[in-house]
């Protein structure tokens, strides 16, 4: 079995792991697709504390062998490797906040990841993909699930406005999920090509902050009321302060992104206090994986146009270096590991 291993800070190498035994409750899968994004870059930039570790957080594969106690999966099934698993027993897990569990493990962060040709995984970490979800679409499951978690945490109601700051892959998915929930997304970014893509997804309110003042525009779109909710997606150029100005008094805001993003955000808290805003963070997918699979299967969310580059398995090392030099260069970089 071959794997892309991060061996030290800024050191990535294709490593031969030899054969791996399939224990009784595990499943062997041939990997089909994965992606290179902020989690892979975070590991590549790691100072060494978690290394060496195989990279890759999101991946889809096909079952090639099952342990004798495995039920529910058979050879030929297409599966998504659930990237984060929580303990299910701590107080946070029991109160329904599994993504905040301190005992969780994450592929490509605390455990060897999915960027390999074959892997052996406990069956509890696998999600069966319906035929309508392709291996390319499958790598977006966690992002869709994160966006569902954001909608839940913001308590977004039908007909409410949600200002989404940042047309990253998460921002572009969140806008579609908001439409599905019959809310009114207003997407703000400074890259016209990303906003044009949003319009193709049916997002009818987009604001290019290069030539339009987002606060004035949102004032006019909401007839002076301003927005009830706002989601600040990481890796956007718009200052946080400005994003909060888009909210109405008593508005709800969320910072949305995976917890391995490294970014410095500073802002003045007093306007939050004066406008009685509530703010939360959304860093994980909670238990929304199956809902995300359903949204992809029913085509409520279109993710394929978010793939801005495809690379082969052999090219992963160079591609990780390329993405690390500019995280926002691609919306999503898809790795084609193998075909069915
Ligand atoms: Zn827990």
What does this structure look like?
By secondary structure, the chain is an alpha/beta fold. The chain has two domains: 2-140 and 303-336, Quinone Oxidoreductase, Chain A, domain 1; 144-282, 3-Layer(aba) Sandwich (Rossmann fold), CATH 3.40.50. Helix content is 25%, strand content 29%. Strands 3, 5, 6, 9, 10, 17 and 18 form a seven-stranded mixed sheet that branches. The chain has a six-stranded parallel sheet with strand order 13-12-11-14-15-16, with helices on both faces. It has a three-stranded antiparallel sheet with strand order 2-1-4, covered by helices on one side. It starts with a strand and ends with a strand. The structure holds zinc ion.
Largest sheet: 7 strands, mixed
Superfamily at the CATH H level of the largest domain?
Answer: Medium-chain alcohol dehydrogenases, catalytic domain
Number of helices: 11
What compounds are bound to the protein? zinc ion
CATH architecture of the largest domain: Alpha-Beta Complex
In the CATH hierarchy, the third-tier topology of the largest domain is known as Quinone Oxidoreductase, Chain A, domain 1
Shape: globular
SSE pattern: EEEHEEEEHEEEHHEHEHEHEHEHEHEHE
Radius of gyration using CA atoms only: 20 Å
Record field, number of beta strands? 18
Mean pLDDT across the residues is: 93
Which parts are unreliable, with pLDDT below 50 for 5 consecutive residues or more? none
CATH class designation of the largest domain: Alpha Beta
The number of distinct structural domains comes to: 2
């Amino acid at each position: 079995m071959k794997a892309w291993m991060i061996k030290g800070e800024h050191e990535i190498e294709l490593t031969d792991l030899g054969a791996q035994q399939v224990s009784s409750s595990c499943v062997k899968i041939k990997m089909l697709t994965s992606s290179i994004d902020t989690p892979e870059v975070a590991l590549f930039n790691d100072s060494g504390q978690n290394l060496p570790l195989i990279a890759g957080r999101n991946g889809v594969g096909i079952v090639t062998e099952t342990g004798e106690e495995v039920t529910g999966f058979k050879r030929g099934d297409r599966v998504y490797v659930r990237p984060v698993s929580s303990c299910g027993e701590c107080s946070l897990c029991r109160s329904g906040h599994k993504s905040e569990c301190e005992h969780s493990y994450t592929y490509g962060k605390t455990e060897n990841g999915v960027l390999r040709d074959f892997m052996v995984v406990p069956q509890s970490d696998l999600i069966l993909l319906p035929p309508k979800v392709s291996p390319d679409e499958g790598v977006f499951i966690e992002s869709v699930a994160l966006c569902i978690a954001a909608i839940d945490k913001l308590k977004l109601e039908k007909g409410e406005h949600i200002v989404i700051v940042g047309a990253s892959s998460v921002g572009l998915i969140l806008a579609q999920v908001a439409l599905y929930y019959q809310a009114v997304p207003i997407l703000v970014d400074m890259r016209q090509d990303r906003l044009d893509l949003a319009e193709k997804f049916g997002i009818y309110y987009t604001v290019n902050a290069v030539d339009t003042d987002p606060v004035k525009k949102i004032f006019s779109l909401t007839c002076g009321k301003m927005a009830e909710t706002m989601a600040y997606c990481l890796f956007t150029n718009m200052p946080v302060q400005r994003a909060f100005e888009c909210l109405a008094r008593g508005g709800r805001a969320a910072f949305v992104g995976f917890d391995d993003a490294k970014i410095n955000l500073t802002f003045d808290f007093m306007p939050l206090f004066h406008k009685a805003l509530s703010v939360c963070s959304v860093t994980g997918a909670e238990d929304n994986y199956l809902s995300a699979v359903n949204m992809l299967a029913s085509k409520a969310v279109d993710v394929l146009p978010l793939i801005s580059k495809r690379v082969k398995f052999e090219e992963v090392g160079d591609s990780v270096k390329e993405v690390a030099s500019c995280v926002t260069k691609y919306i999503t970089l898809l790795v084609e590991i193998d075909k069915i």
